[in-house]
Amino acid sequence: MAQSVNITELNLPQLEMLKNQLDQMYVPGKLHDVEHVLIDVGTGYYVEKTAEDAKDFFKRKIDFLTKQMEKIQPALQEKHAMKQAVMEMMSQKIQQLTTLGAAQATAKA
C-alpha cells in the first residue's frame, strides 16, 4: 500500500497505474493529477486526499494493522498448537481402529 502512494517522488505529469476493477482484474490507466488521489477507506467509501495525506493515512493504517497482528499472534499460535494436538490424537485413534478392524477380520477368518 505505502509503496503505491510514493507518487510525489516520481514528478510525472501522468502517472501510469493499474486501476483495480472488481477486485480481480487490473487494467492500465493514467493518473492526471498526482497531487490529489482517491483512497479506499473501506466498505466502499473513497476519500480524496493529497498525496502526502494519503501517505500518512496508509502509514497509520499499516501501523494499526501491525499492532493488531502482534496482538492476536499468541492466540493464533496457541490455536494452531491445539489443532496439531487434535490432529495427532485423531490420527492415533484412526490407526488404532484400523489395527483393531484388521485384527478382528483375521480372527473371523
TrEMBL record:
GO terms for molecular function: unfolded protein binding. Transmembrane segments: none annotated. It comes from the Eukaryota. InterPro entries: PFD_alpha_archaea, Prefoldin, Prefoldin_subunit_alpha. GO terms for biological process: protein folding; RNA polymerase I assembly; RNA polymerase II core complex assembly; RNA polymerase III assembly. One of its GO terms (cellular component) is prefoldin complex. Signal peptide: none annotated. Pfam families: Prefoldin. Belongs to the prefoldin subunit alpha family. PANTHER family: PREFOLDIN SUBUNIT 5. This is Prefoldin subunit 5. It comes from Bos indicus x Bos taurus (Hybrid cattle). The lineage of its organism: Eukaryota, Metazoa, Chordata, Craniata, Vertebrata. The gene is PFDN5.
